[in-house]
Amino acid sequence: MARTVAKKPFVRRRPCQFCLNNQQYIDYKDQETLQNFVNQHGKILSSRITGTCARHQRGLTTAIKRARIVAILPFIGNTKVSK
């Protein structure tokens, strides 16, 4: 007897925040905006979670990496080492 596979419900993708604001360039000096796309450990969030399109995700990663080099954003998030 064949198994019946339940269909996953369709989940609408979140619209890109930068496309809605008609923003072409993501500024690496805008710390408040870049903080929204980095998790508590300092990792860059994926476009699946944030809802950014592929074009703006590429610009976002370069902006975050530039901000890290210039010391606007930390490389590592708020992690405590327990002893």
TrEMBL record:
Quaternary structure and partners: Part of the 30S ribosomal subunit. Forms a tight heterodimer with protein bS6.
Q: Domain of life here?
A: Bacteria
Q: Which GO terms describe its biological process?
A: translation
Classification via PANTHER family: 30S RIBOSOMAL PROTEIN S18, SMALL RIBOSOMAL SUBUNIT PROTEIN BS18M
Gene Ontology MF annotations? small ribosomal subunit rRNA binding; structural constituent of ribosome
**What family is this protein classified in?**
Belongs to the bacterial ribosomal protein bS18 family.
Under the heading Pfam families, the entry gives: Ribosomal_S18 (PF01084)
Q: What does this protein do?
A: Binds as a heterodimer with protein bS6 to the central domain of the 16S rRNA, where it helps stabilize the platform of the 30S subunit.
Name of the protein: Small ribosomal subunit protein bS18
Q: Which GO terms describe its cellular component?
A: cytosolic small ribosomal subunit
Task: Please give the organism.
Answer: Mycoplasma phocoenae
Matching InterPro entries: Ribosomal_bS18, Ribosomal_bS18_sf
Keywords per UniProt: Ribonucleoprotein, Ribosomal protein, RNA-binding, rRNA-binding
